[in-house]
Design brief:
The chain contains nine helices and no strands. By secondary structure, the protein is mainly alpha-helical.
Length: about 150
């Protein structure tokens, strides 16, 4: 984890946004974005990783996140990472693949979400989602632009 004034602000915002949420196994949800953020190597992607599900899964908007002090570089990545339910999932992944920072965060997210040992019971739906995520990981690994 990268500890800066900005990442600490992102940690607090993430914690407040996901307060009371749990994953499919009943584990506090905050451990997921924390895990994703632990694999980031710079402040901007670390903040984006911490906040990657906030606009999609809580009442907090990207505008709220910007107003809380996150810089445009973080908001840009979050905009790419926020999936609109009207958008085809594979188009969403292709869009993420145009940006190195968003690709790094999404790869870490997909890898963590692909860990079936996190689930108490693995269903056929989970196996199908896992297969989809493996395709997405392979796509992003090859599509990711250089640099950030």
């Amino acid at each position: 984890m990268i500890y800066t004034e900005l990442t600490k602000k992102a940690m607090k915002l993430m914690y407040e946004a996901h307060a009371g949420q749990v994953d499919k196994s009943g584990i506090p949800y905050v451990f997921h974005p924390w895990h994703v953020a632990e694999s980031m190597e710079d402040e901007i992607t670390c903040c984006a990783a911490l906040l990657h599900d906030v606009a999609e899964d809580t009442a907090i908007t990207l505008e709220d996140i910007a107003a809380a002090g996150m810089p445009e570089e973080v908001i840009h990545i979050l905009r790419l990472l926020t999936h609109d339910s009207d958008e085809d999932y594979y188009d969403y992944i292709r869009r993420i693949g145009t940006d190195a920072g968003a690709s790094r965060v999404k790869l870490a997210d997909l890898r963590h979400n692909s860990d079936l040992t996190r689930l108490d019971i693995v269903t056929e739906k989970d196996r199908q989602r896992h297969k989809k995520y493996l395709w997405c990981i392979e796509y992003l690994e090859h599509a990711m632009p250089a640099g950030h």
